[in-house]
């Protein structure tokens, strides 16, 4: 049922060219999903040896979101920014962010929801190893996914990663609100795999707009108040119209390309406010008949004028 509604929305957006991203608002209310500050692995920020924790280049401290009738915005705080870090062991000499996956049916596991067409894939980093093609970013439906940890000097499976973190005195957290065992079951990770972290296919339905830390400061984002002390803060927005209009409960996650850390959270987007005059919005004034007639006359006059110009 949901798959059909999501595809209908995708088709509508394609026809209406709803790739436009609304401009970010000023101060907004944010919901945070903070991650363990001691489960990112990799070389140290200041040249230290491979380790775990706040000095690791691949420590993610958390994510946050805000939404209104026009725009959905996600933000991240980590020790690696949108462009990632140079790494000689990576196939492209760079390790950064994978793609974000937004599961709009959190009663299903990631793989179940993906098979049902209930997962949106969002490529927000144009230089990552997404297999979607080229440098295009955006929101995608009907997705397929792949894992690129192997070409990014990453862990071969979740258990090796988790055991290393625990050995170093760290504490693994994958998705805020889930226990480690629940997250493993949800993501389908364990002794055989570390999970898929990029798109390998899909249908693009809209664009994303990247936001800097200054943009997000102006919107009232404050990771510091939540314990987020990473070196980089950034985010992205996309049009709310790319999603069904009712109340939406979801779970989202994103992995580093090397799978050296994962950050995720539960959330909810409120239903969009119905337009004026809609039965669901009776308090909004309905345009006066005279105003509507006037508007129609104005449009007619414009059409006539346009035809005259063509002649």
Give a topology summary.
Blueprint: H1 2-16, E1 31-34, E2 41-42, E3 51-52, E4 60-67, E5 71-78, E6 85-86, E7 94-95, E8 100-103, H2 110-115, E9 119-123, E10 138-146, H3 158-167, H4 180-187, E11 198-206, E12 209-211, H5 213-218, E13 232-239, E14 248-255, E15 262-269, H6 289-310
Antiparallel strand pairs: 1-4, 2-3, 4-5, 5-13, 6-7, 8-9, 8-14, 9-10, 10-11, 12-13, 14-15
* Helix run count: 6
Major sheet size, sense and barrel closure: 6 strands, antiparallel
Poorly predicted sequence stretches spanning 5 or more consecutive residues: 1-5, 7-19, 286-311
Element-by-element helix/strand order: HEEEEEEEEHEEHHEEHEEEH
Report on the architecture of this protein.
- By secondary structure, the protein is of the alpha+beta class.
- It is built from six helices and 15 strands.
- The chain has a six-stranded antiparallel sheet. A five-stranded antiparallel sheet has the order 1-4-5-13-12.
- A hairpin with an 8-residue loop joins strand 2 and strand 3.
- The longest helix is centred in the last third of the chain and has 22 residues, at 289-310.
- It is globular, with a radius of gyration of 22 Å.
- Residues 1-5, 7-19 and 286-311 have low confidence and may be disordered.
């Amino acid at each position: 049922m949901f798959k059909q509604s999501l595809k209908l929305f995708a088709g509508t957006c394609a026809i209406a060219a709803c790739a436009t991203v609304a401009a970010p608002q000023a101060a907004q209310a944010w919901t945070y999903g903070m991650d363990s500050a001691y489960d990112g692995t990799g070389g140290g920020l200041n040249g230290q040896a491979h380790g775990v924790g706040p000095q690791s280049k691949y420590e993610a401290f958390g994510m946050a979101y805000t939404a209104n009738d026009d725009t959905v915005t996600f933000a991240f705080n980590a020790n690696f920014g949108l462009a990632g870090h140079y790494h000689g062991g990576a196939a492209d000499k760079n390790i950064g962010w994978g793609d974000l996956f937004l599961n709009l049916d959190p009663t299903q596991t990631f793989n179940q929801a993906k098979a049902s067409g209930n997962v949106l894939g969002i490529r927000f980093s144009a230089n990552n190893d997404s297999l979607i093609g080229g440098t295009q970013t955006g929101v995608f439906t009907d997705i397929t996914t792949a894992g690129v940890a192997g070409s990014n000097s990453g862990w071969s499976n979740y258990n090796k990663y988790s055991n290393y973190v625990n050995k170093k005195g760290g504490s693994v957290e994958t998705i805020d609100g889930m226990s480690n065992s629940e997250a493993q079951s949800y993501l389908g990770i364990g002794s055989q795999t570390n999970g898929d972290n990029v798109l390998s296919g899909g249908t693009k339905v809209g664009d994303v707009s990247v936001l800097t830390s200054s943009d997000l400061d102006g919107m009232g984002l404050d990771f510091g108040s939540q314990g987020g002390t990473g070196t980089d803060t950034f985010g992205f927005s996309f049009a709310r119209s790319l999603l069904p209009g009712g109340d939406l409960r979801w779970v989202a996650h994103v992995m580093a390309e090397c799978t050296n850390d994962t950050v995720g959270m539960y959330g909810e987007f409120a239903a969009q406010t119905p337009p004026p005059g809609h039965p669901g919005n009776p308090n909004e004034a309905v345009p006066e008949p005279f105003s509507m007639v006037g508007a129609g006359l104005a449009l007619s006059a414009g059409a006539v004028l346009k035809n005259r110009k063509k002649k």
